[in-house]
């Protein structure tokens, strides 16, 4: 069985679209919403969509994703962001992967696609493709499909407040190969639209460098969100 795990904080506006995509899956699956204190209709929407809702006392995707994974019953885990959309072919692409036992040795990611058009957005998608496919660094907005056995073998998502997706990509690429699912995942351009694409890329690069150099994750979170407000 496939278990899909989605971390949420007040995602009532975007979650229904993703749940509609997920409902096209032709086989049994387990849907887990790992929520942190949503004050909107996130929980009601999730339960209406057939999801199991897990409540977290600690904020942060790393904590929420790992908590969801520990509760999952499926042999395969698929981690998604709530503001993502899945292509129409995602269900059979994923189904073909999880049918083959040999694929449990690898981790899998979706191709990055943004919900905007234009040359600058195309260049961003190309840069992400190079980073993901050649340098083996897919980020969280590309999803992660992984067998439960491999997930726990490499230690899963760390309960850190930021960079949890980069951290797990590094550990996975040291252990095995990360492969393309062969389907796009469309992500919201809301955070990219707040600033120039190049400035946003430089900001993210500086944050990653600081994280690798051992800067306190809590300080990095403060820098990340203060930059978004400026």
Structural overview:
With 230 residues, this protein is α/β, with parallel strands linked by helices. The chain has two domains: 2-193, Spore Coat Polysaccharide Biosynthesis Protein SpsA, Chain A; 194-230. 45% of the residues lie in helices and 20% in strands. The chain is globular and about 40 Å long. The model has no long low-confidence stretch (mean pLDDT 90).
Summarize the structure.
It contains 10 helices and 8 strands. It has 230 residues and is an alpha/beta fold.
Number of strands: 8
**Order of strands across the biggest sheet?**
3-2-1-4-7
The assigned CATH architecture of the largest domain is Alpha-Beta Complex
State the CATH class of the largest domain: Alpha Beta
Structural class of the secondary elements?
Answer: alpha/beta
Described by strand count, sense and barrel closure, the largest sheet is:
5 strands, mixed
| Pattern of helices and strands | EHEHEHEEHEHEHHEHHH
- Beta-strand percentage? 15-25%
Q: Which segments are poorly predicted (pLDDT under 50) over 5 or more consecutive residues?
A: none
- Rg over CA atoms, rounded to whole Å, is 17 Å
CATH topology descriptor of the largest domain:
Spore Coat Polysaccharide Biosynthesis Protein SpsA, Chain A
Number of helices: 10
Mean pLDDT across the residues is 90
Give the count of structural domains.
2
Oligomerization status of the protein chains: single chain
Give helix % range: 40-55%
Strand and helix map with partners:
Layout: E1 2-8, H1 15-22, E2 29-35, H2 42-48, E3 52-55, H3 61-71, E4 76-79, E5 84-86, H4 90-99, E6 107-114, H5 119-134, E7 144-147, H6 148-153, H7 164-175, E8 178-187, H8 190-193, H9 197-212, H10 217-229
Parallel strand pairs: 1-2, 1-4, 2-3, 6-8
Antiparallel strand pairs: 4-7, 5-8
Helix pairs in contact: 9-10
